[in-house]
Amino acid sequence: MRILYIAEIVSRPGIHAVKKLLPSIRKDREIDFVIANGDAVTGGYGIGKNHSIQLRKLGVDVITGGDQIFYKKDMVEHIEHAPYVLRPANLLPDTPGRGWRHYTVRPREWEKLEGVAAGRGDEADASPAGEAGSDASGSNAGAGGDRGGGNPGESGPAEYSGPAVKIAVLSLLGQSGFERSHGNNPFVYFSNVLDRITSGSSAVVVDFHALTTAEKYTMFHHADGKVTAVIGSGQRVQTSDVGVMPGGTAVICDAGRTGSRESVGGYARRPELQQYLTGVPLSSEDGWDDLYLQGVVIDLDLASGYVNGVEAISQHCEAPPPEKRERKKPERARG
To answer: 53, 205, 245, 334: which is deepest, by most CB within 10 A?
Structure first.
């Protein structure tokens, strides 16, 4: 089974890259499940209701957030009715929405065995299985956990048999560097919910939205052997450290961003530079130069629960001509 994580989508250029590239990536790499970080989808600051629905229609199964998840007011109400949108789980208990859920997926490898056409499976937007409390219950650690980490090759892979599997997705917010959004201790939260998350599913993917490499690597070691993958987000620059930890958990410090690579965090360079030179706040503008879809592909053996491989991807996308681009400038979130 293959899981695609799309790095933080920044504004209209990022949406354009997803629209143009996701269908081919999904087909060519035989992707079964798509997770995308949507913390900067709407104008580069947060994600609105309409854009979350658009991404869902484009083929994204789960949208994770970060410190900006509620920057758009309509998301506060919409998230209660959108099981495919996750806010950081370690926010205050009365925060709207949920921070982790189970999703039921029908893997392509099983469909091939049955001789049926590959598809998106049993509602990947999935009503979470066995919901209870403030977050849905779920998942059996795919990259180790109860099965243990390390090399699965000694006893040989068992044959996978079953029409559908559960994937748990957990969104967590780091504690360093955020000015407006503050979560509870993500390490303590992770430990407290791990048994519920790793109960009954084939994979657990954690999106750790944080701004320091030290905090991310601490989480990698804390989670190693307990979940399938911990994917870092928030810094919007793809790092070259993708790999598998000693206990079997796939990690990357930051998956990057989906949008303009020749930019400042996905925004047009000139206004961002002027702010540094003058100290005067300016509205950010969409960056359309050198568009890329970045992210991570995780290859998981369903029979053993081990990660077969993990790969960072960075795929170029042609930008539309200027006359067809979104003209509206994104609003800068005021603190």
So the answer is: 205
